Amino acid sequence: MTSEDAGNTLKGEAACFHHTVRVYIEDTDAGGIVYYVNYLRFMERARSEWLRAKGFTQQALLEKGIQLVVHSVTNRYLRPAHLDDLLTVTATAGALRGARLTFTQKALRGEQILSEAEVVIACVDATTLRPRRWPGELLAALEV
Asked: What family, per the record (predicted)?
């Protein structure tokens, strides 16, 4: 983390959440290779399951007027995934600054890293879509 990224760091930052994803035909191109944008879909699922494991769902947050949106993504593609591969997609929460929470994520086949990303999630008011601080109960669950 650089000095520009300095902010609150989650206590469980080293704790890495794992989510298993099977590659289906709908995830691939005609050659059976995962289409690049689908790695982002896999990572979204991992973050949603990470949130669920913390006791929250996207729907419950929406009902409270809170929406979590992607602010920015930096992704590197290192190796292709193929039809029927079983992937592990990780989500590790890192720096928390105001309305933004940064995740480090990877898609792996066994020990091979196929894709790695830094995803910044913003907490916004569901009506105005303006940034807002993370609510207390969610911060407590995130162990800030």
From this structure: Belongs to the 4-hydroxybenzoyl-CoA thioesterase family.
Which sequence positions are flagged as catalytic?
A: 29
Q: Which of 132, 126, 123 is CA-nearest to residue 102?
A: 123
Q: Are 34 and 27 in contact (CB under 8 A)?
A: yes
Phi, psi angles (nearest 5°) of residue 80: -85, 150
Cβ atoms of 5 and 102 closer than 8 Å:
yes
pLDDT, residue 141, reads 79
Kindly state the tokens that stand for 24. 């289906």
**In the chain, domain spans:** 3-142
Indicate the DSSP class of residue 131.
B
Please provide the CATH number assigned to the domain covering 3-142: 3.10.129.10
